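Title: Comparing notes on inverse folding

I've been comparing how different people in this forum approach sequence design from structure. To keep things fair, I'm posting one structure and asking everyone to reply with a full sequence. Here's the target:
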């Protein structure tokens, strides 16, 4: 079980880092852009919220299959196909958990308002300086909330990781899949241990998220 727990924590950590790197610019663009197709991009980002995980996992499996153009490119780049590997799990997890990073970060950017950014611009701050020295520090609560939600969501994934990664011990067998296995084989004690751990973890995540949001509301109220 420890091997499974460590692998799941590794997947959640790597996925959260990747999500912050790619999700933060997307959130910034969605918060600041006036493009007419912004809502369409926002809907695509939010699609995993309503799309059944097995559907997303199925199409990812097809997209990354060795016979597909993307799969052939990945094989040429990495030397092997991505399905049923840890790298494939990361790709699936990033796509599936993307809205859990983008939405709270986008809300944090929108809550900043125009005034701090306009003041920075009048002081001849470049867009680069405005983003890194003004927007990111002010959006820190949203970034933290997004990181917590993205990490927790990845920890609890089942359908996507099962479709794209399968159930290979030490390679792609994560906690949710292990619990399912233990239930199928009637190993109730092991299933109870992992399920209770996930239950406690989920409670802590919700509590931490509520505390962050409460502090964020107080901060915004104080700034007014």
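Reply #1:
Here's my take.
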């Amino acid at each position: 079980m420890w091997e499974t727990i460590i692998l799941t924590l590794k997947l959640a950590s790597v996925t959260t880092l990747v999500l912050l790197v790619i999700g933060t610019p997307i959130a910034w663009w969605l918060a600041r852009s006036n493009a007419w197709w912004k809502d369409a991009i926002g809907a695509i980002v939010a699609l995993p919220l309503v799309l059944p995980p097995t559907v997303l996992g199925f199409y990812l499996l097809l997209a990354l299959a060795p016979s597909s153009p993307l799969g052939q490119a990945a094989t040429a780049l990495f030397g092997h196909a991505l399905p049923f590997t840890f790298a494939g799990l990361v790709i699936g997890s990033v796509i599936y958990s993307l809205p859990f990073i983008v939405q709270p970060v986008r809300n944090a950017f929108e809550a900043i308002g125009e005034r701090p950014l306009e003041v920075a611009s009048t002081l001849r701050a470049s867009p680069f300086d405005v983003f890194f020295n003004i927007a990111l520090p002010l959006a820190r609560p949203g970034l933290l909330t997004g990181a917590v939600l993205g990490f927790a969501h990845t920890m609890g994934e089942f359908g996507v990781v099962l479709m794209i990664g399968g159930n290979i011990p030490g390679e792609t067998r994560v906690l949710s899949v292990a619990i399912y296995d233990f239930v199928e084989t009637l190993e109730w004690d092991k299933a109870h241990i992992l399920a209770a751990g996930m239950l406690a973890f989920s409670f802590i995540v919700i509590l931490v998220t509520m505390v962050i949001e409460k502090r964020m509301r107080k901060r915004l109220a104080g700034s007014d």
